[in-house]
Amino acid sequence: MKTIVVCLIVIFSIIQYSEQLQNLLNTSMHKCITCLCHARTGCYRRENCARYSISRSYWETAGFPTLPGDSPDSDASYNRCINNENCILNSIVGYTSTFNNLDCNCDGVYDCQDMLKLHLFGEQCGNIMDSNQVRRFNNCASDNNLSRMTSNDLCQVDAQ
């Protein structure tokens, strides 16, 4: 009986941890996150974005995205994730999704601009004070056919 219980625990653990990451490479979400990271760090490498803005706590809030075979309760899994392009993308999508598609600029659309503010400020949707971040985001958005930030005004956002 004890052997059966142990086997079942192992099987359920494997099933739970083998959930595949969504492939976000070469998608519109990939373009958005490229611009988000460029705005944040000034470069286009997601690894730099991860190093500067995906803390262990951020990764946990994102739902512990892991590579196949990794366990979410390990520092090694976190470190492998923030060095893997697709895992970085899934971490940022997972984190920003925890705020229920919060419309940070109150334009009626949840888009890359909202994700940028959520990534930087969480549900507070703060104002981006660094004009270089706005400029970098807008330049990248133009290059990738994404909507540019036209105003950095805050609106009254009801966090859910």
Automatic annotation (TrEMBL):
Disulfide partners: 32-112, 37-43, 81-87
Listed GO biological process terms: defense response to bacterium; killing of cells of another organism
InterPro entries from the UniProt entry: Invert_lysozyme
Reaction(s) catalysed by this chain's protein: Hydrolysis of (1->4)-beta-linkages between N-acetylmuramic acid and N-acetyl-D-glucosamine residues in a peptidoglycan and between N-acetyl-D-glucosamine residues in chitodextrins
Gene3D superfamilies: 1.10.530.10
GO MF annotation terms: lysozyme activity
Keyword 4Fe-4S: no
UniProt name for this protein: lysozyme
Species of provenance: Oryctes borbonicus
